[in-house]
Protein 1
Amino acid sequence: MSGRDRFVDPVRRALHDGAARWPWFRRAVETGARELERALHDDVYTDGYYGETGRAAPLEIGTIDYTRTSTHAEEGAYLVWRFLPGDYTLDIGCAFGFVVEVERELGLTALGVDVSQYALDHAALGARGHVRYGNLLHRLPFRTEEFDCISLFETLEHLPPESVPPALKEVRRVSRGYVLATIPSFGPNGNGPGGWFDLKVRPERLDYYRGLGDAYDGPVAYDDLYRDERGAPIEGHLTIASFAWWTRQFEAAGFLRCDALERHIHPHLARLGLTKYWNLYVFRVPGAPDPVGDARAAVAIAEVEQRFGFAGRSADPEDLARVEEALGT
């Protein structure tokens, strides 16, 4: 019996016996359990945010359901596996852990963290035991420079602008290799298609922001952020800024942007149908080799593409044209 069990088991038995013997004690235990459960949950990322599979109306995250397929977890995990060197990975903002589940299917030693206790309590089967609570604004439960690869899929925009620098410092602390992030962005992008203000800025303010030109970096003022039907920032997005702004934040935290690798990935992102949805960034820590191509063997890539049905996909002509124009190909 572990030291934890030697402490927990007697307490559990005492609570059970007291609740069985005295009605007033049972009510106290029930009330305490409810309040403790509430204390673990935040006010935003609960069942109302993620919703239930099969519901008719879109969720707050913009999809009809929140599943491995709708969140593009297979595509995201594939990008990490194929292009980033290393096998020990962390997915920050993992939600139900779909990316963790897929990465483990691909043979990676993958972990995940999230601030939503609701999501962690409903983790995907293949992620259970491998996801835990973690908050970028506090110390993550990991050692310094522990991970080869870190992913942040649609995560950092949920922080207010003033919280981005300390959050990225914590990402840097646990990184010893590479970071792959997707962040809603606007403006020019030197390594691929640029971003836009649509669905990020309130419609009545679009002309104003478009008129600011490429020199404007943001972040967009809070009052001008696109809103949902309740008047809250859409999908909980609090920081909408340019590619240049985000790049500076990562560089200030001690990262270097992997320009060549991003340019290599973008045609594949288009083939997977994600050019319209994901604004891509790849960074490395100083001293880590600057990758320029695939990190896995061609035969392994072909097998995974067949397994997930990626081999037969082709890019939307509009997406492909945007990528080719951006890359000058």
Note: Confidence is low (pLDDT under 50) at residues 52-64.
Protein 2
Amino acid sequence: MMSLDEIKAPISKQMDEFEIKFKTSIKSSAPLLDKITAYILKRKGKQIRPMFVFLSAALFGEIKDSSYRAASLIELLHTATLVHDDVVDDSNERRGFFSVNALWKNKIAVLVGDYFLSKGLLLSLENNDFELLRIVSEAVKEMSEGELLQIKKARNLDIKEDIYFEIIRKKTASLFASCCACGASSAGATAEEVKRMHDFGEMVGIAFQIKDDLFDYQNNNKTGKPYGIDIKEQKMTLPLIHMLNNQTFIERRRIINIVKNHNNDTRKVAKVIEAVNNSGGIEYATNKMHEYQTKAFELIKAFPYSLIKKSLEELVTYAIERKN
């Protein structure tokens, strides 16, 4: 697997320029906002999503000013959803650091998320990027629906596999789909090509989320995600769903009872994780993840070989083979 720097090589100049443009796009006249945004920027992740925007744009020709705005729009939306998610989940950590709500409380965190969303809207409207705004607004709607569907289903822990895929398609994959669709659109791709790239991003996003599920069953401090945290938060992941589908009624009830009522008991959570490992749930989820990777590759198969296409494929591979 190529390193992230190697994958980024064909678009490294654009990514560096994007960093500068993005910092400028979130400047505010309010000192507190600038202080919080500076804190967020210092702890930014690997920037996989902007990379998908630029590589998708380059696949269709030249990276234009609108491509930078597309990447900024995605990043503004993504940052807003992360800040809001930490409030919704009552989470005090984000990537191993204090979350915004942990340091500045929920009220300010919600307002900061709103600020990022409004900056994205204004960036699009000021430049007449109506198609980019349409693509991203659709993703915001889907992400909200996915989160609400998950909350509703988590109450009874009655998530079946089809519902699980519907949740992650909306919650996670819709943003990846927007990255690739916005990149293609910004470079002048046709409506049909934009749709293809949207589907490509959706397949990548589903595979990415399954990988995230798998981290819950790996005792690996590099992930920045505590071991068994999804079980403690009563989230139904694919390995857990597969394991429950292959249990007797009595055993299924026992495990659901642990997840629902004893999820802070480390010993009992460890038993659930052991049951998932013994049931073949990890292998099942891993195979599903690779199926979606294959579907993604099929969608860009027709493009001739280029360094851009190679980086795009390697970025997909990185997304599902990452260690954190």
Note: The first helix runs from residue 4 to 8.
Protein 3
Amino acid sequence: MAKKTKNTYVQNSEPVTNSGHLEEVGAKCDHFVVNGEAFSQSDIEKMIITVRGEQVLIDRDLAMIYGVETKVINQAAKRNSRRFPERYRFQLTKDEMMELVTNCDRFRTLKHSTSEPYAYTEYGVSMLPSVMSTQKAIDTSIRIIDAFVAMRRFFVQNAGILMRIAHLERHQIETDEKIDLILDKMEERSPQLLPEQIFQTGCVWDAWSYVSDLVRSARERIVLIDNFVDDRVLSLLDKRADGVTATIHSRYSEPFLTDLKKHNEQYPAIDFIQLTHKNHDRFLIIDDKVYLMGASLKDMGAGLCAVAEMQASPDAILSLLK
């Protein structure tokens, strides 16, 4: 059972995805234009992610909003490093960058980057106009800060809802883990197919159930060698999984062949091969295992009988039929 590892929130029908250290967030507001390219406040809010518990913009997104190359932003901050302490601007670690690449499609190209990107907090964005010294930079920074404020207001206003959703998802994860544990215990304690089994007279259902489980366990083929078969055997073999072939080696019987023909017109075909001579024992081949059957499949449990897994190979048994 799959474990839930991500939390998903909804705001104005747009996804807010918590991916460990990173969150993509979104909202809607007015449009503005930078270098002829239209951005909305909603667009900016979608670029804001959370790293180390801080809402930030990655340098390449910030540069795109400003309409400049990424190195222009970083060089301006580097030349004025005293104005950009770590709470204003910090460089992602290799692991944080790879998590960014994994969770955000627009950062896929960072996978081949030789250096980790920088993240700018709201404080860092507010400091940029002082080092870029243009009216355009000032206007753009105001818009970006408005986006940070809008996101912070959203989280404050919806903190209760987000906490309840997070609580529900944590509860779901705990429930899934408990269900997994229960299923594991059930599997440990469930009856296994034994290589040898003895059925007392009258244990018709137990014998039928056991052989049914043998049929269901097949992954490739089932071969039955039995002198006496009827339509009950067809029903039993129909319990096999999709794609598993079934072949019956038996004596000629007109009524059974009629049943088989009707069966094969509707259900996955079961092949019939006529035995060239009478055989005393019955065998059931499941993939590469051979079982010696103490009675015909249709009569299992009607009298004292046993089933035993043999060491002989299927090919060895089948070669003796010729």
Note: The radius of gyration is 35 Å.
Protein 4
Amino acid sequence: MLARLRRGPRAPFALLVALTACGTLGMHMIIPALPATAAALGVGAGTIQLAITLYLVGLAIGQLVYGPVSDRFGRRPVLLAGFSLYTAAGFVAAAAPNAAALIVARVFQSLGACSGLVLGRAIVRDAATADRAAGQLALLTLVMSAVPAIAPVIGGYATAYVGWRASYFVLAAFGAITLVLTYVFLPETLGSRDGGRGARSMFYSYVRLLSSRAFCGYAIGGACTTTSFYAFMSASPFIFEHMLHRPPQEVGLYYLVLMCGVGLGGLSANRLAGRLRPRTALRIANALAIAGATTFALADATGWLNVASMVGPVTLFMVGAGMASPFAITGAVSVSPQAIGAASGLYGFVQMGYGVFCTIVVETWRPGAVFPVATVLLGSALVGQAALAMAVRRM
């Protein structure tokens, strides 16, 4: 039985949603604008997709730092520093004169955004015992899924009626508002005894976590089930707009449907937490993801690809991802109660690192084609099933 942590001060739930959502907002809002951005800056699809790929790289690398640093110095000061960087880089990206400046600004924006991804999860775990954290993280996933669901719709209409820079300005403004709210309303949730143990080196914390088969299973399984979706996000705007000839504002609505799948999965996880064993819940979640990825691959292989046969199966995949994510995160950050921040950061690094790998695969294999995307989703769902099964056997 894992040791129970003392409950710390509670952060406002709406603020946790905003903190955690900023990283994914930076991904989703600009997706409908990618073709227009490439045309305006005079670059190809492969070049402008670096605004997504390198954003993921920044999210991955930054999470290795934020977790242990927050274990040492506290959640609040680290979040304030991270969101200051996110906001400043966001305004630079919005005013970028060329693709190189935009991509560099996006990297710094991601380095700031990942503070919210790491520490939002850590703050939930600070104030809850392990047996309650899965339900609370599932609720956070459910509510948070509405934000990136709406983001592509806003980005699509902003691009169509204002221009490609509009999405970047909205992201920067949202970061500035979140920074102010964090300064005013966020308490420090890290207990004094946790801060003392967080003084251990990052290297020691990561070695200890990587030596745990349970942690590795949850981290790899969670990554395969969730961030493999970034392969679809990177390639799909070009598939929708160039192959299926859909306008950017309509593409944003398709992503709304997909993110509703994440919300449905999160709601299911919230209802199942405490009622089903994690092993059973994760098997159900992965079965849904595998079914969705298989159907999507078959639609492409049989020549029946259209908007419905593309959005429908991927939405089912996202239901499975939304359902699996809270159980995988809770399992990963509960492996070592003395290093919750480090575990959250390392988990996020594995997630985003795998997302980078998936986007690189679809961008270099056959850019703009459906087959590589379908292959990545199906292969990831199968590997995720095996990794999560290993994790639950080790707990």
Note: The two ends are 9 Å apart (CA to CA).
